[in-house]
Write a structure and sequence with these properties.
The complex is a heterodimer.
Chain A (H helix, E strand, L loop, with lengths): L3 H56 L8 H4 L6 E7 L9 H18 L3 E7 L1 H11 L3 E5 L9 H16 L5 E9 L5 E9 L18 E3 L2 H74 L2
Parallel strand pairs in A: 1-2, 1-4, 2-3
Antiparallel strand pairs in A: 4-5
Helix pairs in contact in A: 1-6, 3-4, 5-6
Chain B lengths: L4 E6 L4 E15 L2 E5 L6 E5 L2 E7 L3 E6 L2 E6 L2 E5 L3 E3 L5 H15 L6 H19 L1
Parallel strand pairs in B: 1-8
Antiparallel strand pairs in B: 1-2, 2-3, 2-5, 4-7, 5-6, 6-9, 7-8
Helix pairs in contact in B: 1-2
Classes of the chains: A alpha/beta, B alpha+beta.
């Protein structure tokens, strides 16, 4: 049975924790709004980019000589995985969910006897993966210093990927990130960016759309466009990720605040009871002492 | 009949410009400037450093772009670019910085002809901006 003093101390400590989580929740809520806005603003760019590439790839007839970034190297032995996570913790299952998704993919690759290479973006991902997959991690990038997500950072990652592709260091590239659905739900995503997966659903409206004029020819445009598309996809993933991170942190901190509240209530009841018990005990002692006289 | 069409300029961070009352746009495509009017045939091309001129009924706007992709379809011109600014609020320091970084790049030996051409062009355009 803890003493009254112990209980009092615990109550104060839980209360101050509650204050911290509450503050973190508010900060996350404010950041979430901004991140969500950014994610929405960034959407038109990647959508248009996708459209253009779709139109272009439809009009390419000579599939054999098409840029390798689009059709792949013809093999799929070496897989490069880009795992995008946050730089900070305390955001519920956000990082763990991405890692879980990525790990199941890694296991599949390894069991099929293919070569696995990992690039982690964000320090939390690196921390969680280095124990198990240290030998596979080829690069570890973190944008801790940059306050906001900007295209410049995404472009850096994109350039690394292109460089590695040109050196034939991998055949297939996939990125892992959390897609922001709403504040409570973030869905871990696995998206293949090299070779580009063509959307099968969009085949309906083809046919007479192929009458584009190209200047210069399709191949040149595609080889100029595809590296940009990689950066764009990474950027999109980073935007979605940051919105998800804040959303996830907000829910996690909201839960923590509520739990702390419950704990304070329970401790307060216990404190009051034991104080009352002590008082009653003293009264009984006095009364029995008086009676015995 | 109106001879107006739409233009959308987007960069990765946001939608930069969206208008529905332009009658001519001149874009610095990689093989030369293209003027686009209403009912141009669908075209996809990409840009070299240069100036996009947007003529609408009431005004003329000029933007500097470094690279990008343009698509014209169904009387909508979409410009995707990662580096764009309005000439009206061009930052003198930024322009001169870009010039010097491009020149530094030019002085390296290991660049190929196409890159050299693009860089030379970029310096030229930026210099013409800084004079005005």
């Amino acid at each position: 049975m803890p003493s009254l003093d112990d209980l009092r101390k615990r109550i104060t400590s839980v209360k101050s924790t509650q204050k911290i989580t509450k503050a973190m929740k508010m900060v996350a809520a404010a950041k979430l709004r901004k991140a969500q806005e950014n994610a929405e603003k960034g959407r038109p760019y990647s959508e248009k980019m996708n459209n253009v590439i779709l139109n272009l790839s439809k009009s390419i007839t000579d599939k054999e000589n098409a840029p390798k970034l689009l059709v792949g190297t013809g093999e799929e032995k070496v897989h490069l995985c880009i795992v995008l996570t946050a730089d900070r913790g305390l955001c519920g299952g956000f990082n763990t969910n991405i890692i879980k998704k990525a790990k199941s993919y890694f296991e599949k690759i390894i069991s099929e006897n293919k070569t696995l290479k990992i690039i982690t973006v964000g320090s939390k991902g690196y921390d969680q993966l280095k124990r198990q997959y240290k030998s596979y991690i080829v690069e570890n990038i973190s944008f801790k210093e940059s306050k906001n997500i900007n295209y410049f950072d995404a472009d850096k990652v994109g350039k690394i990927i292109i460089e590695k592709f040109e050196k034939n260091e991998f055949d297939v590239c996939a990125i892992f990130y959390n897609k922001f659905k709403n504040v409570i739900t973030q869905i871990p995503q696995e998206q293949q960016i090299v070779p580009l997966n063509e959307d099968k659903d969009d085949n309906d409206d083809s046919g007479n759309d192929n009458d584009y004029e190209f200047e210069p020819d399709e191949d040149e445009i595609l080889s100029n466009l595809l590296p940009k598309n990689i950066s764009t996809q990474i950027f999109k993933a980073m935007l979605e990720n940051s919105a998800s991170e804040q959303g996830s942190r907000m829910t996690a901190m909201d839960n923590a605040t509520r739990n702390a509240g419950e704990l304070v209530d329970r401790l307060t009841i216990e404190y009051n009871r034991s104080r009352q018990a002590a008082i009653t005990k003293e009264l009984i002692e006095i009364i029995s002492g008086a009676e015995s006289l | 009949m109106s001879n107006l069409f739409n233009i959308d300029i987007v960069n990765p961070e946001q939608s930069f410009l969206s208008k529905d009352n332009v009658f001519e746009v001149v874009i610095p495509a990689v093989e030369g400037e293209i003027g686009i009017l209403k009912d141009h045939i669908p075209i996809i091309s990409f840009l070299k450093p240069g100036i996009i001129r947007v003529f609408s009924e009431s005004e003329e706007q000029n933007f500097y772009v470094e690279d990008g992709i343009v698509e014209f379809k169904d009387n909508t011109l979409s410009v995707l670019t990662s580096s764009i600014f309005d000439l009206k609020d061009a930052d003198k320091n930024f322009v001169s910085e870009s010039i010097s970084s491009a020149e530094a790049e030019l002085s390296k030996d290991n660049i190929d002809d196409q890159k050299r051409f693009l860089l030379n062009h970029k310096v030229e355009v930026l210099k013409s901006i800084s004079i005005n």
